[in-house]
Design brief:
The chain contains ten helices and 17 strands. It is of the alpha+beta class. The protein folds into two domains: 236 residues, Zn peptidases (Aminopeptidase, 3-Layer(aba) Sandwich), CATH 3.40.630; 90 residues, Peptidase M42, domain 2 (Elongation Factor Tu (Ef-tu), domain 3). The strands form three sheets. Strands 1-2-12-3-13-16-14-15 form an eight-stranded mixed beta sheet, sandwiched between helices. Strands 5-4-9-6-7-8 form a six-stranded antiparallel beta sheet. Helix 1 packs antiparallel against helix 2, helix 1 packs antiparallel against helix 5 and helix 5 packs across helix 10.
Length: 357
């Protein structure tokens, strides 16, 4: 388990509102923590936060975990004061009705609930059909448009209500584990490496707008120009009823992070990561990514400039893109250990050209 100070940071990070494009709150928490042990910390114009160890080293390793989250955005306020919205990221509309939300306004957070017609007023056909987003609204308790507009403006971003809870001894639930748990792994790896002698520069990035196409990772990796880049994200836990393992693999909570194999992953780098885990007897799960390419920051970083040797380490996650995502902190521990030992072993003279290593 992470120590008390690390868990406090993680809880603070999860207890933020930061939908894609509006990540100031999680960025502030991430930056404040990284300043405790990094040689320097900066935030770029998109909102990516970059903490650096050994900044003068010519060989650069980039770790990235995104701290944005899926959400919504205000599009219209009706005459009777209800708020209409559009998705901001990959929303699962089946999870949306009856959700509590936080609207990020110029005056602060405004709380609301997402409403729809109650089941008693639905026709028989409507009861068996998923409600469309355009048929839902947000109720903030006001009585008309004028009152709502005193609090909320068209364009204001919206996120699910912040929530954090431990489930049993090792598992944690929050609406923001995708991918603040990856940003947590990035921070904890740099904290561990700050106590070690390292031969390479390490750039720990909390990235923005991943849910809108990995936009933050594109900008930050172009600026850093890393030799090696490892994305830490969440992956689909398949230890659930009715999830076909022959299609999505066998990934369980608490059995270690998933070391992905896909077109986004440099084969030489992946082999080095696996060998490090095996040598040190760190738990991990060798799985294929759920698609041949895309879906995480690793896909875009490997194509930056002349290319970077990329890898993807995923923390198994249940109920992804919902208000009740669940992960296991033992997988975080093993991810940090694997990354720390892999990076600490680098000399800065490695080549990661497949077939030429």
């Amino acid at each position: 388990m992470p120590d008390k100070s690390a868990l406090k940071f993680f809880e603070d990070l999860l207890n933020t509102t930061g939908p894609s494009g509006y990540e100031e709150e999680p960025a502030g928490v991430f930056r404040k923590y990284m300043e405790k042990f990094c040689d320097k910390v900066d935030t770029d114009v998109l909102g990516n936060t970059i903490g650096v160890l050994n900044p003068d080293a010519p060989f650069k390793v980039m770790l990235v975990g995104h701290y944005d989250e899926i959400g919504f955005q205000v599009t219209h306020i009706s005459e009777d004061g209800y708020i209409w919205f559009r998705p901001n990221g990959g929303i699962d509309k089946l999870n949306v009705p009856a959700s509590e939300v936080e609207i990020k306004t110029a005056r602060g957070i405004v709380h609301g609930v997402i409403g729809k017609k109650p089941i008693h007023l639905l026709s028989e056909a409507e009861r068996d059909r998923a409600v469309k987003l355009e048929d839902m609204w947000i109720d903030i308790g006001t009585e008309d448009r004028k009152e709502t507009e005193k609090l909320v403006a068209v364009g204001d971003p919206i996120a699910l209500k912040r929530n954090v809870a431990m489930l049993g001894k090792n598992r944690i639930m929050s609406k923001g584990l995708d991918d603040r748990i990856g940003a947590f792994v990035v921070a904890e790896t740099l904290r561990a490496l700050a106590k070690r002698k390292i031969n390479v520069g390490v750039y720990g990035v909390g990235s923005v707008q991943e849910e809108l196409g990995c936009r933050g990772a594109i900008a930050s990796s172009y600026n850093i120009n890393p030799n090696v880049a490892i994305a830490i994200d969440v992956g689909f836990a398949t230890d659930l009823p009715d999830v076909p393992k022959k299609k999505f693999g066998d990934a369980k909570l608490g059995q270690g992070p998933m070391i992905a194999a896909s077109a986004d992953v440099n084969t030489v780098l992946r082999r080095k990561i696996v060998e490090t885990a095996d040598k040190n007897k760190f738990a991990y799960q060798p799985v294929t990514a759920h698609r041949a390419s895309g879906g995480t920051d690793a896909a875009v970083i490997q194509l930056i400039r002349g290319g970077a040797a990329a890898a993807l380490i995923s923390i198994p996650n249940r109920y992804m893109h919902s208000p009740v995502e669940v992960c296991d902190l033992r997988d975080v521990d093993n991810a940090v250990k694997i990354l720390t030992e892999t990076i600490a072993a680098l000399t800065g003279n490695e080549q990661f050209r497949p077939g030429l290593d």
